[in-house]
């Protein structure tokens, strides 16, 4: 554990040496992450917790994932594991959304359609993984879900986050000034 902690601290020290350090990286909002800890986010594959947590019922088609991004731009990868207890990156062998680059700072809602994945059946346990690289290392968040074919839409959509979706320059400026308050 000590070695592990030192590795995280070293990585964070590197973070502080950057020209524009951020107080936060990114945060999965909904479904809720296993854990949200800024320092542990560097820890693959789930940002600090390798045991599954309470599972959120999640529709096979029509699900929502909401997260907040605190870097001006970032590369993201969205994987899914169908193993009961994913403990390694290799367990996240499929994708729930194509790789993409996001920006600016703000809140994001993604519509999720898992119906093309052959493992995605009613009652199946799965784990969604978000990988985020905003320039200071690869960061991880995970959420444990149980798939449902009877849920249609929504269930997990965060209305407050939807209302804050960046819709243009004004929203971007507001998000950046909010970040300045954090710094
Ligand atoms: Cu960061």
Automatic annotation (TrEMBL):
Q: Which InterPro entries match?
A: BIM1-like, BIM1-like_dom
Stretches that traverse the bilayer: 159-182
Alphabetical keyword list: Cell membrane, Glycoprotein, Lipoprotein, Membrane, Signal, Transmembrane, Transmembrane helix
How this chain sits in the membrane, per its record, is: Lipid-anchor
Main localisation: membrane
Q: Does the keyword Transmembrane apply?
A: yes
Keyword set includes Cell division: no
Q: Where is the Copper acquisition factor BIM1-like domain?
A: 24-150
| CDD domains given in the database record | LPMO_auxiliary-like
Q: Where in the cell is it found?
A: Cell membrane; Endomembrane system
Origin: domain of life? Eukaryota
Annotated protein name in UniProt: Copper acquisition factor BIM1-like domain-containing protein
Q: Which organism is it from?
A: Polyrhizophydium stewartii
